[in-house]
Design brief:
One of its GO terms (cellular component) is plasma membrane. InterPro entries: AAA+_ATPase (IPR003593), ABC_transporter-like_ATP-bd (IPR003439), ABC_transporter-like_CS (IPR017871), ACT-like_dom_sf (IPR045865), MetN_ABC (IPR041701), MetN_ABC_transporter-like (IPR050086), NIL_domain (IPR018449), P-loop_NTPase (IPR027417). This is Methionine ABC transporter ATP-binding protein. By secondary structure, this protein is of the alpha/beta class. It has 2 domains: 244 residues, P-loop containing nucleotide triphosphate hydrolases (Rossmann fold, 3-Layer(aba) Sandwich), CATH 3.40.50.300; 84 residues, ACT domain (Alpha-Beta Plaits). Helix content is 36%, strand content 30%. It contains 12 helices and 14 strands. Strands 6-7-8-3-9-10 form a 6-stranded mixed β-sheet, with helices on both faces. The protein has a 4-stranded antiparallel β-sheet with strand order 2-1-4-5, covered by helices on one side. A 4-stranded antiparallel β-sheet has the order 12-13-11-14. Strand 12 and strand 13 form a beta hairpin. Bound molecules: adenosine-5'-triphosphate. Adenosine-5'-triphosphate binds next to strand 2 and helix 1. Adenosine-5'-triphosphate (ATP) binds next to strand 2 and helix 1.
Amino acid sequence: MIELIDIEKAYIRKKAEPFVALRGVNLKLEKGEIFGVIGRSGAGKSTLLRSINLLERPTSGTVIVGGVDLTALGEKELQEKRKKIGMIFQHFNLLSTATVRDNIAFPLKISKLSSKAIKERVDELLELVGLTAQQHQYPSQLSGGQKQRVGIARALANDPEVLLCDEATSALDPQTTDSILSLLKDINRKMGITILLITHEMAVIRSICDRVAVMEHGQIVESGTVLDVFLNPVHSITKEFVSEVSDTLGNDTLSAFEGDGRVVRINFRGEQTYEPVLYETVRGTNATFAILQGTVSRMKDVPYGQLIVELRGSDDDVDRIIAELKTRGLAVNEL
Ligand SMILES: Nc1ncnc2c1ncn2[C@@H]1O[C@H](COP(=O)(O)OP(=O)(O)OP(=O)(O)O)[C@@H](O)[C@H]1O
């Protein structure tokens, strides 16, 4: 649905060398997925996001959305295509002198729909984002979460194929963040719209994204399914992000541990989380095990679990158990 090929962006600066904000970025989003890009401040996330609708034109490279090479379009065709790419912003960017209703109607008026069609579409959108009761209020009378709902309704007005979210929850408290993220998840599910979001919060990625790319110094340094990246982060910056939200077990347990067996951390994912995999594996040997700690959590809609266990038995048996668990697709790390 979205393809970025070899994107470079250099900002021209007065009295200084150009600043290279994107270096050889390649990215492919499938239709209907929620894709997150995470990075520290200055990593190039906004530049990347704004390259997709060419609000920021790359210095070189190709941007393809819905099969169309945007970098090859003239200004008029680009304006048309942009209607199919909705965008929401950290600070909402609403018209302060217009009501909720008029803010949402704005892109429809630009698209020159009839008054009747505009009224019907605005009513639908108000209902979708839960703001029918506030339709005649002004932005200053709304909470942050309500303002972002107006932003979402406005972005969806022209029925886009893609929704770009620029730090859409960064100005909101945790509870409001959850309600906005669940609205985005609902919209993705109901309308099949492809969502690309940028954030500096791994909690946002864990809560709604299917896949994630990690950016540093204008490059994508790691990408994959959210579950893979969470359970096996490779790059140091990814490990930092994961540790910020991770409920990784271990340190407290191990400092109090005095047993003789070998201690392992086992990560389960998906349906395996609820299967007696450990019991079945140990049963075929003369070893036993003791559970020292365990947790089950969710990443988007996928359950995952972690166990810290002491495996008691001969080295041969314990080696066999670890190998068998790995064969069954579990991540096992000896601590
Ligand atoms: N118009 C500009 N001129 C010069 N440099 C710019 C311009 N816009 C952005 N930059 C620089 O490009 C780099 C990437 O900026 P960008 O806003 O894409 O990063 P970001 O990851 O979104 O960070 P943040 O979360 O702080 O917005 C930064 O170092 C920034 O200072």
